[in-house]
Amino acid sequence: MKLTNLFLASLSAIVLLAGNSPATSAEKAPATFTITLSDLDCPSCAKKLAAKLLALEGVAKVETDVETQTAKITMKPKATITAKILWEAVEKGKKTPVKIEGPDGTVTAKPKA
């Protein structure tokens, strides 16, 4: 009887823990993209580019780094964006993207779709 109660208590604990377990990182963590640019060489330009990217629908945060010539974009939870939209936003910001790394892979030329 005690063994059965212990077993049921253990089973209940496992079920409760499984129900509260964190979801996979793909479900929980917002998508992030890293854009490498060939000409992000001044803090003022980086700030302007960050504002341009932050204005895109679904973008939660933008961090630019002049030293590494990159912009890291964090999306809002459940928000989606394409590499093409990011590429074009960088071009509209008068900068030259050379690579976009994101959840779906790496792009090194302007995407067609």
Which tags fit this structure?
disordered N terminus; 113 residues; 25% strand; alpha+beta; five-stranded antiparallel beta sheet; globular
Structure description:
This protein has about 110 residues and is an alpha+beta fold. The protein has helices spanning about 1-20, 25-30, 45-55, 85-90; strands spanning about 30-35, 60-65, 70-75, 95-100, 105. Residues about 5-20 have low confidence and may be disordered. The chain has a five-stranded antiparallel β-sheet. It is globular, with a radius of gyration of 21 Å.
Q: Outline the biggest β-sheet.
A: 5 strands, antiparallel
Q: End-to-end span in angstroms?
A: 64 Å
Q: What coarse outline follows from CA principal-axis ratios?
A: globular
Mean pLDDT: 84
Question: How many beta-strand runs?
Answer: 5
Order of helices and strands: HHEHEEHEE
- The number of helices is 4
Task: State the low-pLDDT regions, or none.
Answer: 3-19
